[in-house]
Amino acid sequence: MKDQWGREIDYMRVSITDRCNLRCCYCMPHGIPWAPMADILTLEEYAQIVSCGAALGIRKVKVTGGEPLVRLGCCDFVAMLKQIPGIEQVTITTNGVLLGRYLEGLLAAGVDGVNISLDTLDAGLYRALTGAGELEQVLNAIKEAVKSCKGRKVPVKVNAVSLNLSEVAKQLGYAYHGPGWPELLELAKGYPVDVRFIETMPIGYGKQYPPVGHQEMLSYLKRQYPGMERDEGFHGHGPATYYRIPGFQGSIGFISALHGKFCHNCNRVRLTSKGFLKSCLCYEDGVDLRKILRGSETGQRKQDQLMEGMRQKIWGKPAAHCFEYPEHVTEYENMAKIGG
Length: 340
Prior knowledge:
Layout: E1 11-15, H1 43-55, E2 60-64, H2 74-82, E3 89-94, H3 99-109, E4 113-117, H4 123-130, H5 135-150, E5 156-161, H6 165-172, H7 185-190, E6 194-198, H8 214-224, E7 229-230, E8 241-244, E9 252-255, E10 268-271, E11 276-278, E12 287-288, H9 289-293, H10 299-315, H11 335-338
Parallel strand pairs: 1-2, 1-10, 2-3, 3-4, 4-5, 5-6, 6-9
Antiparallel strand pairs: 7-8, 8-9, 10-11, 11-12
């Protein structure tokens, strides 16, 4: 389905939980209250919404959270989505802590891609940033994912938030010096994984921590790797710009939502764990699909109401975000509540 600006909206991010086993300072620090489980959709309810989305032209689904692997039945949910007519691709974003336990289940369910969030290769800073967990556990999960996914042609990507790690460490009371982010390049050098740096979105707790600019990062890379060049190969349906460094197995990507604004190509909507469909991170408005799902209507009438609510929200998707004008931003929830 096209929105009012002529963009093809074919991608839905589905948050299946607001819970997480980490407490990342910029996303879900200690003390954040969780929604009652009764307010969270059942897996069957999410699937019903995705089925309606598929009828409207949604073809790709990203399963997110919170941390999706803390939700019981996550692998079954991936399999459920793969059976919906029209859905061509189901991928998942995870912090990697539980990935070793569930990787085979995800692959058996038919998952089409695995994104692993990781911001540093310094074990102490990892604990300071995440408030829990062990870096080695995530690194082992990356290695295992590369090994298990390679023969099945399931791409593995590492996502890092573009933070000024030395300044963030200072705020967290951890002694750390240096930019930090260049260390993550070693993952793309040693493994066939794309390492992508994601510009910090100025909403929620992320506003408290200083970013590092992508132009600064690119300038550094060009000095360090003069043979680096743009990678025009296909890496997925997202907005990342990729570069290839000679001798590296994977590519380096940048997702620059603010300073490389790609709203004119935006193809996505987001479904929160409570069933609220959002068409843009910047604005609070959306449609409460849970209210329709749990309303008095039944059968085809309920399905028609879901479809119409989704159709109107997709059609009315804003032309662009306004994060560069903070006074116009109307979304005040943190990312944990909205969905990754």
